[in-house]
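User: Here's a structure from my thesis project, written as structure tokens. My advisor, Dr. K., wants to see whether a designed sequence matches the one we expressed. Can you design one independently, without my sequence as a hint?
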């Protein structure tokens, strides 16, 4: 599954989790790949939060978590 399909198909929090797990990089992928994954995941969750209103707060938690993971990886690469 590619990113565009993952982003377009997810309409619920569960669908977002499932789609993003299919596009997750290998554990030993470069840090830059992981940063991009977490940033794009944050965008998917933020979009889904507007659709799956019953899970709005939980989905926004995941969006924030993914954004913070990307920032953490970037900071660790600088030190």
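Assistant: Designed independently from the structure alone:
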């Amino acid at each position: 599954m590619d990113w565009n399909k993952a982003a377009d198909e997810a309409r619920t929090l569960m669908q977002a989790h499932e789609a993003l797990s299919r596009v997750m990089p290998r554990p030993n992928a470069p840090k830059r790949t992981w940063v991009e994954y977490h940033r794009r995941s944050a965008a998917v969750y933020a979009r889904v939060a507007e659709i799956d209103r019953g899970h709005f707060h939980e989905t926004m938690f995941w969006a924030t978590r993914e954004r913070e993971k990307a920032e953490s990886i970037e900071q660790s690469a600088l030190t």
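When you compare it with your expressed construct, this may help: The chain has a mean pLDDT of 93.
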